[in-house]
Amino acid sequence: MNTPQLARLLRKTPIRILYKPLHRSVSTNSAINRGLRRSVAAERYYERQEDTSEYGYNPEPTNSQDSPPPFNPVIRRVSARREGEPEDDSFEPESGRELSPRLDHKSPQFGYTPAPRRYIPKVNYDAEWIYGTSVVEAALKCKRRKMYKLYVYAGDNRTPAVRERDRDMKYLARAADVEIINEEDVGKMDSMSNSRPHNVVFGYVLECMPIQRTPITALKDVQEDKNFFTLEMARHYFDGRPVTEHYFDKIRCRDPKRRYPFVLMLDEILDPGNMGAILRSAYFLGVDAVTITARNCARLSPVCLKTSAGAAELLPIFEHAKSERMITESTENGWTVYAAIPPPTKNQARRDRYVYASEVGEAVKEGPVMLLMGSEGEGLRPFLKKLSKFCVSLDKGPGADSLVDSLNVSVATALLCSKFLKV
């Protein structure tokens, strides 16, 4: 075989096949682990043999090829020896010592015993712990959910101002028929809040049922005096449970003298922090209600409620199963739907019925408006943008670099709501 033929053969032959013996020789961990597994299997096998012999039971003879090898604690080294190691390539492990995956290292020794995770029983299995001063106070005042126990931190560092706040919180709890527990162990309250800040200065944790979102299918007509608007209720929740009662029957407009109702529709907001920030900004700016998709959306978890600072308890929140039906039927009932999109080009602006954010302030004076916001990463789904009547976005400031080409969804929602409501 000449040189060109040998070169072509080497190019066609995979490198992993040529160096396969080398890989076998340096795979120390895998070889040692195989030896350990075989030794443990053999030890268990002979223990079973001893247990059966006590009762005079002789197992069926097995094939010598299927039986495991005799137990031998001596493990052969497969890799090359290090400098200073003995020439013998085998060693016997110490008795009473558990072998670690790397036999040349000792098992870690702890000077303390890790404390197990605390188990705190609940009154109801489906209940949750909400934390934070504003969240707990709003839940006790609104009474939109069933509440069981209020845990108040009773440590030695309570100042007179904090103790006065404790009395006000306990007064709200008694008015709501909630059991009050003075808790001195801050670690227990940390376990209930999943090690998240519960305002240790005040230290309030409330055990209650999750907040219910009213299931709807569409928004109905608005009264002539602009004081109320009604809802088209759904018969079942998203998981199939029948709806027996509705917390909201009709929604009151927060500023009927100046404008029509303004509703915020959230489609697939995944981050609970963004969800809570949106609810907080919406309530602060004067949004009348919020509707959220039932699937692929962050739930109203304790993290979301803590971020909302109690706004989730005060703001009417709905859920809808089908966004397409929600937009179509609400449009037929007189609602104007605006879709929030990134800043488009000139051709896209003409095709997508684009309006500037500075021009939407008069929209709520002409009729009811619903603003549609999309997810954090992908934005609004294309078919929902086509169903909307107008598209609106925020323009970038002068001199902004192309590296930062968008805003956080909670910040964008707050800015757009302020443009519509002229706050």
Automatic annotation (TrEMBL):
Residue span(s) of domain tRNA/rRNA methyltransferase SpoU type: 262-417
GO-annotated molecular function: RNA binding; rRNA (guanine) methyltransferase activity
Keywords: Methyltransferase, rRNA processing, S-adenosyl-L-methionine, Transferase
An example Gene Ontology CC term for this record: mitochondrion
Ranges of Basic and acidic residues composition bias in the record: 94-107
UniProt cross-references to InterPro entries, sorted A to Z: Alpha/beta_knot_MTases, MRM1, MRM1_MeTrfase_dom, Ribosomal_eL30-like_sf, SpoU_MeTrfase, tRNA_m1G_MTases_N
Pfam families listed in its UniProt record: SpoU_methylase
Alphabetized Gene3D superfamilies for the sequence: 3.30.1330.30, 3.40.1280.10
Disordered, as annotated region: 47-110
Family per similarity comment: Belongs to the class IV-like SAM-binding methyltransferase superfamily. RNA methyltransferase TrmH family.
Protein name (Swiss-Prot/TrEMBL): tRNA/rRNA methyltransferase SpoU type domain-containing protein
Gene source species: Choiromyces venosus 120613-1
Higher taxonomy: Eukaryota, Fungi, Dikarya, Ascomycota, Pezizomycotina
